[in-house]
Fold:
Amino acid sequence: MDGIPEEKESRLTMSKLNTTHVFTSEAVSEGHPDKVCDQISDAILDACLARDSNSHVACETAAGPDLVVSLGEITCAGWDAIDPEAIVRQVVKEIGYDRPEERFSWDTFEYKSVLHGQSPDINMGVSRGDDDSQGAGDQGMMFGYASASTDQLMPAPIMLAHRLLCRVTAIRKNGALAYLRPDGKSQVSVLHAGGKPVRVTDIVLSNQTEDVPIERIRKDLEEIARIELADTHFVDNATRFHINPTGRFLVGGPCGDSGLTGRKIIVDTYGGVGAHGGGAFSGKDPSKVDRSAAYYTRYAAKNIVAAGIARKCEIQVAYAIGVARPVSINVLFFGTGKLPESKVAEMLFAGEVFDFRPGRIVRELGLKHPDGWCYRQTANGGHFGRPEYPWEKLDKVEAVRSAVGL
Structure:
């Protein structure tokens, strides 16, 4: 395979040879300490964009026992009218941390804010007044991925892991299992044959609870999982369940473990399938390409797979800070493509179907003016594979096919 970089050749070879394999992905609940922080950061972003759609926000959150701290840079024309502490307490209340005896409750934790304005050095390269010349908010590389293995064009393990936790959270909040508390994790191992998911081999569920018998917890959560995933036909009598494996999970949330914004980047994306550029999403306004370009590469990859060009597609885009056009775009099909990857990469770099300039991305996806969704909701349940988001649209399938001559 002359001319193919060693790393790419290795990944291609693995994709072709590994026809039967088990892949595992994890998800975390809205009450996980890192997800608490992600939701807080995005709720503050939502408040800023509601006041000033041109806000520049890089808001981080840290949480621990009886403590939440807001850090970072915010430039917002209506900032004086925003009460970040009220936002923080409301988010924590809605998640369900309402017991002071657990050492983290919405009405009793200490709150500190050290938020300040954005660096003028960064702002100089980013704010240029028009969509065509707006520079990237930072250097770096972002990845998007799509796979024909599920209806959502997402990897099955991460979709199933998120789905399980969403169901457990709904049952906790409707009171059906009153002993459940907000913190939790899931993990799903999926056997693939010929690149397609065929069955679930293992399910791990760990959920914070009140002090009730472990036998009851395990029986209840296994029943929930089996019912929730019954329509997939992936769970059978041989599926192994590992529910609260240590036998006790009473101390959870920011009291059980500190939380930080941006510490669940694999949970937020594709569950470990494909590559990741390392940048987190939550708390960042759309001028930050860590967020907006990752959304846009997913948008492009999904339309390429839906166009029938490949069963799997990974796109990398890279930027220089303050520069509008990407410095590179790379495409990888993992041996599933009908066309050369270089031809599709050329199509993307030309910018006629997908324009990767940051200002154009923001405008095309409506990222300054979310319609029917908000940034906070992306911080719980994954950023991809959910039809309410504009980067999940399949509105360029025919344009892609035409551009590459299909």
